[in-house]
Amino acid sequence: MPQTKPAPTPQSQTATPSYAILPHELPSALGRVGEGIKVLSLDCFDTLLWRDCHSPSDLFAALPDLSVGQRIVGEQMARKAEATLKQRTEVGIEAIYEHAMPGADVAVRSEAVMRELDTEARNCFAFAPTVELMRNAKAHGHKVVIVSDTYLSARQLQKLIESAAGMQVAELIDRVFVSSEAGISKSQGLLQKVMKTLKVRPSQVLHIGDNRTADFEASRALGVPALHLVQFSETAKQRLRLERACQQLVGDAQDRPRDEARGLMPHRNVLASEEPKATGRETALGMTVLGPVFHAFDQWLRAEAEALEKERGGRVHWLFMLRDGYLPHRVHEVGGTAPSTALVEISRFVAVAASLTTKEAYTKYFATELGRKPSTLARQMLFTEDEITQIVGVDATDHDMLGGSHRLADELKKGRRQKIIRRRARERADRLIAHVRDRVNPEAGDTLMLVDLGYNGSAQSHLDGLLTKAFNCHVAGRYMLLRELAATGLDKRSFIDERQYDLDLIDALCSNVAVLEQLATCELGSVKDFTPEGEPIREEVGVKGAQSEVRGKVQAGVLRYVKAVQTMPAIRQECSHAARALCSGALGVLSRFMFLPQAGELGVLKAFEHDVNLGSERMVPLFDQALAKESLKRRGLFYMKGSQRMFLPAELEGEDINSRLSLMVQKRFGLGLTYSDTSQGSIAIPAFFMGRTDSAQSTVHAQPTHEGFYSARVPIPAGVESIALTIGSVFEWFELGSICISSIDSLKGENESEERIEEISAQFDGLKAHAPGILECTGTAAFLLVKAPHQSDESAAEKVEPKMIEIVMRPLIRRKTHTHGVAHPVSAPQVSDPLIKRQAAEPALLISQREGAL
Question: Can you give the pTM of this predicted structure?
Answer without folding.
Answer: 0.90
